[in-house]
Design goal:
The chain is α+β, with helices and mostly antiparallel strands. The chain has helices at residues 4-11, 79-82, 122-133, 136-139, 142-156; strands spanning 22-33, 39-48, 54-60, 66-70, 88-91, 95-100, 103-108, 112-119, 164-166, 172-190, 193-194, 206-207, 210-211, 217-225. The protein is 18% helix and 39% strand. 39% of the residues are buried.
Length: 242
C-alpha cells in the first residue's frame, strides 16, 4: 500500500459514488482515546454531495460531553447528523497538514494542537487487503457491513465498530473504510493543556448510539447517509433555533 498521505491526497480529487443519498469521500481519525478520559476524532471530506468539502473535529471530555468544530456551517458538516447529542457545535478555521507521508497535523488556532503518527499493523493490513477486494455491491449490503463491523472491532482492538445503523438525527448511515492504519505517538493539547498519553478509555465512548472506536484508528473511505426528510429526521444544532 501507499503511505496514508498519498491516499488522503487522492481524495481531494476523487469522484463521489453515484446515488441520491447524502454522500461523502475522504478520511479521518475514527477515534483517539486518551488516558485522561478525553477522546478526539476528525473527519476530512473533500468531496460531499452537500456542497463544499469540509473538515470537522470531534471532542468528548472525561464527563462524556461531546462538541464539534467544523470549517463550514454546522448543518453542512458532521453536526448535521450528530447535533441532537452534542453540547456545542461551532464553525471555525481548521488546518490539516501532512508534514511527512505518515504524520498528520490538525490545528485550530488558539484551541487545539494535534499530531498523529500512523503505522501499519497486522490487523490494519488485513482489514485493508480485505476491503480492497470487496465488490462494490457488498459495500451496500447491511448484512456484509454488520458482519465486517463485528469482526473489525475485536480484530483491531477497538471494541465495538458499527459500519451501518442510525445516527442521532435518525438518518440511516453506511461507512466503507477502504484503507485502515493505527495511530501511534499521538500528541494533543486543548486550550494549552495536554490530553496526555493515548490509551483506551475504561468505557467506550458513544455519540448518541454511535460507538466511537476505543483505539486510535485512521481510515480512508466513503460514507452515505439517508437523505434528510423533515418529517422523519431531527436536525438540531446546540445554541441555534430548531
Amino acid at each position: 500500500m501507499k503511505p496514508p498521505a498519498d491516499y488522503a491526497a487522492d481524495t481531494e480529487t476523487a469522484i463521489l459514488p453515484p446515488g441520491e443519498d447524502e454522500r461523502f469521500v475522504g478520511y479521518g481519525v475514527m477515534g483517539q482515546p486518551f488516558r485522561s478520559g478525553h477522546v478526539l476524532a476528525m473527519r476530512r471530506f473533500p468531496q460531499t454531495s452537500l456542497g463544499a468539502g469540509y473538515t470537522a473535529v470531534w471532542h468528548c471530555d472525561p464527563d462524556g460531553r461531546w462538541r464539534m468544530w467544523a470549517d463550514v456551517p454546522p448543518l453542512l458538516a458532521c453536526p448535521r447528523y450528530f447535533g441532537p447529542s452534542l453540547t456545542a457545535a461551532e464553525e471555525c478555521d481548521i488546518t490539516v497538514e501532512w508534514p511527512d507521508p505518515w504524520t498528520l497535523d490538525v490545528r485550530i488556532d488558539g484551541l487545539l494542537e494535534w499530531r498523529t503518527r500512523l503505522t501499519r499493523t497486522a490487523a490494519t493490513t488485513a482489514m485493508s487487503v480485505l476491503a480492497s477486494r470487496l465488490p462494490d455491491s457488498w459495500w451496500n449490503s447491511n448484512l456484509v457491513l454488520g458482519l465486517m463491523g463485528r469482526v473489525a472491532g475485536p480484530l483491531l482492538g477497538a471494541e465495538e465498530i458499527r459500519l451501518h445503523g442510525r445516527v442521532p438525527s435518525e438518518q440511516w448511515f453506511t461507512v466503507n473504510p477502504l484503507r485502515v492504519w493505527a495511530t501511534t505517538k499521538v500528541e494533543a493539547s486543548l486550550r494549552g493543556e495536554s490530553l496526555g498519553e493515548p490509551e483506551r478509555v475504561p468505557r467506550q465512548r458513544r455519540l448518541g448510539g454511535f460507538p466511537v472506536p476505543n483505539r486510535g484508528l485512521f481510515a480512508i473511505g466513503r460514507a452515505t447517509f439517508e437523505t434528510y426528510q423533515p418529517d422523519q429526521h431531527v436536525q438540531r444544532i446546540p445554541g441555534q433555533p430548531d
